[in-house]
Design goal:
- It is a single chain.
- The chain is 24% helix and 32% strand.
- With 136 residues, the protein is of the alpha+beta class.
- The chain has one domain.
- Strands 5-3-4-9-8-1-2-7-6 form a nine-stranded antiparallel β-sheet.
- The longest helix has 17 residues, at 119-135.
- It is globular.
Length: 136
């Protein structure tokens, strides 16, 4: 059977998405980067709401000891955030992409993270499943 050329498909979203990579990077797609560009922030604060499993990414223009440098490419941006992911116990063994919502009032992106992506949540879930099995 002869080889067939498969055309390249471009998948671009007009909605903001944030990816958490297996290498500990947080990537912002073109739509999210465009919103960040409007804020003119060179750095970002990464925040974690443990109760709601939500991450917030807030652009800031001045350096802060808690801030991460925002790296920019042609149409995307990224943050090296392995230490943040380790602190919130995010399982970054695989790359996952999440929809992001821009909160105009607070000036940051909000991303809901599935509890399955948090190591401590999975451990609690496994423990409670084991307890239920014992009771049955």
């Amino acid at each position: 059977m002869p080889y067939e050329i498969i055309p390249k498909k471009k998948t671009r979203s007009i909605s903001p998405f944030i990816s958490f990579s297996a290498r500990g990077r947080v990537g912002l797609n073109q739509a999210a980067t465009a919103i960040m560009d409007n804020s003119a922030g060179e750095f970002v604060l990464l925040m974690w709401d443990k109760d709601r499993h939500r991450v917030a990414i807030q652009p800031i223009s001045k350096k802060d000891s808690r801030a991460y440098k925002l790296g920019r490419a042609k149409s995307s941006s990224m943050v090296f955030a392995k230490s943040f992911m380790e602190q919130i116990q995010y399982d970054f063994n695989e790359t996952r992409t999440f929809p992001a919502e821009w909160n105009d009032d607070r000036g940051f992106f909000e991303i809901e993270i599935s509890p399955d992506c948090i190591k401590s949540s999975r451990a609690k879930k496994a423990a409670s499943n084991g307890t239920r099995r014992l009771k049955q």
